[in-house]
Amino acid sequence: MKRILVTGGAGFIGSHLCERLLNEGNDVICVDNFFTGAKENIIHLMGNPYFDPVRHDVVTPFFAEVDEIYNLACPASPVHYQHNGIKTIKTSVMGAINMLGLAKRTQAKILQASTSEVYGDPHIHPQPESYWGHVNPTGIRSCYDEGKRCAESLFMNYHLQNGVCIKIIRIFNTYGPKMHPNDGRVVSNFIMQALQNRDITIYGDGTQTRSFQYVDDLVEGMIRMMATDDNFAGPVNIGNPGEFTIKQLAEIIIRLTGSKSKLVYLSLPQDDPMQRKPDITLAKEKLGWQPLVPLEEGLQKTIAYFKTKIQQS
Ligand code: NAD
Ligand code: UDP
Q1: Does domain 3-172+215-239+278-292 bear CATH number 3.30.1490.100?
Q2: Rounded CA gap, 191 and 259, in Å?
Q3: Best substitution site from 170, 185, 198 to test ligand 2's pocket, by max atoms within 8 Å of Cβ?
Q4: Residue 139, C-beta contacts closer than 8 angstroms, at least 6 positions apart
Q5: Given this model, what pLDDT does residue 313 score?
Q6: Ligand 1 within 6 A of 257 CB?
Q7: Per the confidence metrics, is the pTM higher than 0.90?
């Protein structure tokens, strides 16, 4: 039985990962400060004696004996990470230092949940891992983008200097049940608006693109990455190459929900990337991984989850 630490384990992705790791017979410690995560996401796991939820902020060191660490602690939605940009940077940077220190002492393998945001508003399309990106270092997204870029650098330096076994994945837009209904991200916003027949808020003209990955595909990719050869550090893109405009996404969600919502066009936030699509050649080659869940199938499951949330409220 491996003892595995998941930081940000009460969040959207973290809670799915904790569940999968427990189902595979591991002993899981879930560290979270509940900024954007919720006990609700993990309450069904709490009866399991091999699940330890710990309220803790990764900005301060954490002590435990562990075999593997998945470092997910960090708000991911632009609304949440811009709420307190300084705290977002501290979480990414000091959180990485604290978790890498723990990995170094315990000789644990450590995986960093990095992001497609390291590519910024990309000039290369689709984005391969070799692309260094196009990021505004002082813009409103910089607390997240530069925090994550610095974390990647810290991971690589602990690997090269101290021999820590690191794994970096760059996650592209991921959606699914347990997303926070009010986190401001496009999938949760559009589904909630459609289910309540409210206006669907398109920022800009809706021609910007994103590639949406269902959470189960991501969790599979994370576990496969952790299992790779100790010398393989990445970074590796984990995302679904299916690319959609934001307007297309709105139309699909309206159709799947049978909604009467109308599209409304609002101003585009500063530095909003115009296109995003992963090149997953490396993930296919090194992890034998590719996404399996088509957009409409994943959206149906997510819509069903949000319907239940609305009924319960
Ligand atoms: P989320 O906001 O649901 O989860 C983040 C979790 O981290 C929450 O439970 C939150 O309470 C916790 N957290 C935040 N700051 C913390 C701190 N200082 N100490 C302890 N816990 C803290 O977001 P998510 O979508 O589940 O994202 C998880 C990770 O994946 C993040 O690191 C994010 O950057 C990365 N990621 C997500 C996506 C996506 O599309 N969902 C894309 C790229 C990268
Ligand atoms: N977006 C939108 N309406 C919304 C929320 C988001 O048009 O209600 C757009 C946003 O401007 C961006 C895309 O959808 O172009 C994805 O936004 P999200 O916040 O989900 O993720 P990110 O920008 O980090 O990829």
Answers
A1: no
A2: 10
A3: 185
A4: 270, 271
A5: 82
A6: no
A7: yes
